[in-house]
Amino acid sequence: MIEVKDVSKSFGNNQVLKNISFDVKEGEVVVLVGPSGSGKSTLLRCINFLEEFQAGQILVDGEGVGYVGSAGGSRRRQSEADIAHLRTKAGMVFQNYNLFPHKTAIENVMMGPMLVNKESKEEARAHAVKLLGKVGLADKADHFPSQLSGGQQQRVAIARALAMRPKVMLFDEVTSALDPELVDEVLKTLRDLSNDGMTMIIVTHEMQFARDVADRLLFFYQGAIIEDGPPAEVFENPKTERFQTFVKRFQSNVHRG
Ligand SMILES: Nc1ncnc2c1ncn2[C@@H]1O[C@H](COP(=O)(O)OP(=O)(O)OP(=O)(O)O)[C@@H](O)[C@H]1O
Ligand SMILES: [Mg+2]
Fold first, then answer.
1. How far is it, in rounded angstroms, from Cα 219 to Cα 228?
2. Ligand 1 contact, 20 CB (< 6 A)
3. Domains of the chain
4. Which GO terms describe its cellular component (predicted)?
5. Helices 150-162 and 121-134: crossing angle, nearest 10°?
6. Average pLDDT per run of 10 along the chain, which is 257 residues long?
7. I want to staple 113 with a disulfide (CB 3.0 to 4.6 A). Which of 119, 159, 161, 204 is the partner?
8. Any idea which ligand is nearest the CA of 32?
């Protein structure tokens, strides 16, 4: 469902992705962990083409991301329409959920499908009701963001991304800005999505969650993947000292949730 092949990206002289390759099969959950600045967000942003990349290729559901033509050859940027289409296939949720403050929860969920996917108001509303139910907010549809907790707002943001009927979902530290007691309700939503068979890449520092939910764990270090495998294997038998050192720093999270 997602193929990342030899992707490299630099900001000026700073190479932040170094020949990254991996793929994500349909229904698979891949969790990315790694120290701050190792390139996790940049990779997710490349998959949704919020960032350009200089080398390599990314495919989502068989379609090339960002560029027409082969890497190395005569590569040029896709049309804005194709890029917009791509972004409907890969839903993304960030740490800061950025709901529209003057719109209710359900209006936030309905907007994208109506504006971008040209769904009718009725169709968009019916789907939004279903999705708000799925994230446990059926009774909050008419609340404004300011009337919702951080965890509830983040779940609205997840429903909003799902409303675009994406093929894959990309989550970038969606619990990092939340008070600790609100983290579990958002992680539960991610677990539910995984159980529904959604294909996902999740960047998180929640190690226990990573162990429980990931089919594959990738450990990023300075722009490269230096551990890759089922989480039990990586946690029990890490190939690198760096991963062990990293995990020790998050021991406090390991016993949560
Ligand atoms: N827009 C930008 N311009 C220049 N450098 C950038 C830009 N965005 C990111 N970087 C650099 O790219 C590197 C990777 O950043 P990235 O945000 O991908 O890391 P991360 O693994 O997501 O870190 P964190 O865990 O703190 O979110 C860092 O060195 C960062 O300073
Ligand atoms: Mg990041």
1. 7
2. no
3. 2-99+168-254 (3.40.50.300)
4. plasma membrane
5. 130
6. 97 96 97 96 96 95 88 81 91 92 98 94 98 96 97 96 96 92 93 96 94 96 96 93 88 50
7. 119
8. 1
